[in-house]
Amino acid sequence: MNSARDAVWEPGFEPERKLAVIRLGGLQWCFPASQSGMRRFYQRIIPVPVEDWTLDLRDWSPGSGCTVNARLDLRFQPTLAFVQGCLNQAQSAGDIIRHTYHTLLQDQVEQRLESLPPEIWLDDDLSDIETCIGQEIQEFMILSQIQSRCHCTLRFRFLDEVADPGHDTASRPRHQAVIRTLRERLHQARLRHQQDIFEQQAEASRCRIEQQQKMTALLREETEALERHVEEEARKIRAGIALEEVATREKMAGELRLHLERIHQETQLRQTWFETDLAEKNSRAAAMNDVEQHLHREIEFLTLERQRLLLEEEIQQTRQARFKPRIVSG
Tell me: the pLDDT tens digits for 157-168? Predict the structure, then answer.
């Protein structure tokens, strides 16, 4: 078993594996497709990807009331030769493998489990068996022209309902001693598990009680501190109210004094403004009288000037009429 675990299996997957097919008449040629991606019009390119396949195989029963469940996690890639053999089928190579090899893999795992010595199930670690089965599956697949990597997972469990022990003893009597040992181990494990659960519950209850006690003490301390804080705040509030009342009275007296002073100043300012405005109005009235007298004199001067101009114009017209030649009619 240890040699199987230490072996390193390299399946040799190719991410760009493709098969090129050429059919002319009744002839057919198959060869690996070029990695350059060039495709001729007469070629058919079949990609061959790496695929995953999970098989939950049928339970295998070594004895009364117990089963072994096997699960295979396969990653596989068919070779070009395998794909070439599937060209005439409608399904893809991956679907053909899943359909054809499911039963074969089930049978191979069951045969391997059947061939194991019963004492091996007494080991707590089944990784050696899982590695051995995975290695055998990989070898079986490569012989079938399928590259693969397989991981096997085994789960040994007892059923709740036990079958007829007489029938099962006749079928696999060499496993009964092992099954009885495993049942005793399971019973002891269940007892230990129940004891652990009981101890955990008791410890959890004790922790809850201690936590509740701590919370109660903390709540009591917080309540007392809160009461002291409320009393101190009330004292501060009462002192603050008294100080605020004194400050309010002083403030109101000061505001009243300032208001009276402001009224007195405003009265003085209004009186000064009124006197200034009256003096300004009187000054404006005197100035208006001077302007009116000046305008009156200007009007008289303009009237006399106009009369002088009219008189000169009449004199000029008279002179022109005097010296104008007279016209004698014939």
Answer: 765 544 444 434
